[in-house]
Write a structure and sequence with these properties.
The protein is of the alpha/beta class and 289 residues long. The protein folds into two domains: 118 residues, Nucleotidyltransferase, domain 5 (2-Layer Sandwich); 144 residues, ATPase, nucleotide binding domain (Nucleotidyltransferase, domain 5, 2-Layer Sandwich), CATH 3.30.420. It has seven helices and twelve strands. The strands form three sheets. The protein has a five-stranded mixed beta sheet, with helices on both faces. The chain starts with 6 loop residues before the first strand and ends in a 5-residue tail after the last helix.
């Protein structure tokens, strides 16, 4: 059976950009990582990496917020970001000179598509990928495709009820006590004065962390009704956290609806860049972004 066309996958991150030329996870022909410096330097190096491989399409899984509206004059741009120098950057434009289709989406939608195609979300629909790290973000696959709408899902900014004993103001500069503001790695460090990985398993932080994640997942469940949610990101590596979250989600939903299956990602750190490969394959299969 044919492996399909060779495509480029690009995952942009705050400190590095991962790039592959591949047909899938078992056929990666070339791979590199480029430091995230200035947009012209970084994106230029990525395009230079892809050019000799003559890829049939390029998929980009990008940090955001980003503009996904094809009718917009800033389609393909990063719109607002705290990353210095990267606000209002035309990411897609940097790859047009390759002369192939360029598919653009969020980093978490990319990771969700990668896990749906080859990992923890195979044969599951709807499926959600939620990453809990420096920030919190989520991507959703509905009817086999990444979910878009007015903008793109911003699951990390869902408002959640604050624990009555929690006086922490929240770490989100926009919303204070949203899910990201209360349960990201930045919030954990700010609230407890140390890095999450330094907190022992019996620390009170993890009871509160599981509670807040469960509240966010309950909201996502009520709206999207995913059959399965993969929980990734560095914070989810804490011992016993996934099982705590499973229990708290069931308690929060209180039997009104079934709790979705909560699992660890199967693709690990490669979910985003492999998701970018899956994005690049969409137009080649006759789909549209």
């Amino acid at each position: 059976m044919s492996r399909g066309a060779l495509v480029g996958g690009v995952e942009t991150g705050g400190t590095r950009v991962r790039c592959v030329a591949a047909t899938g996870p078992d056929d990666v022909r070339a791979e590199t990582s480029v430091p995230t410096t200035t947009p012209p330097e970084t994106l230029g190096r990525v395009a230079d990496f892809l050019r000799p491989h003559r890829v049939a399409a390029v998929g980009i899984a990008c940090f955001g917020p980003i503009d996904l509206d094809r009718r917009s004059p800033t389609f393909g741009w990063i719109t607002t970001t705290p990353k210095p120098g990267w606000a209002r950057v035309d990411v897609v434009g940097a790859f047009r000179a390759l002369g192939v289709p360029v598919v653009f989406d969020t980093d978490v939608n990319g990771a969700a598509l990668g896990e749906h195609r080859w990992g923890a979300g195979r044969d599951v629909d709807p499926f959600v990928y939620l990453t809990v790290g420096t920030g919190i973000g989520g991507g959703a696959i509905v009817n086999g495709r990444p979910l878009h709408g007015l903008v793109h899902p911003e699951m990390g900014h869902v408002p959640i009820p604050r624990d009555p004993a929690d006086s922490f103001a929240g770490a989100c500069p926009y919303h204070g006590g949203c899910l990201e503001g209360l349960a990201s790695a930045v919030a954990l460090r700010a609230r407890w004065g140390t890095a999450p990985e330094a907190l022992p398993a019996e620390h009170e932080a993890w009871r509160l962390q599981a509670r807040y994640l469960a509240l966010g997942i309950a909201a996502i469940t009520a709206v999207l009704s995913p059959r399965r949610i993969a929980l990734g990101g560095g914070v989810m590596g804490a011992a016993g956290l996934l099982e705590r979250v499973r229990r708290d989600v069931a308690d929060t939903l209180a039997g009104y609806v079934r709790a979705p299956e909560l699992v660890a990602p199967a693709l690990g750190e490669r979910a985003g860049v492999l998701g970018a490969v899956a994005l690049a394959q969409l137009p080649l299969a006759g789909g549209v972004q």
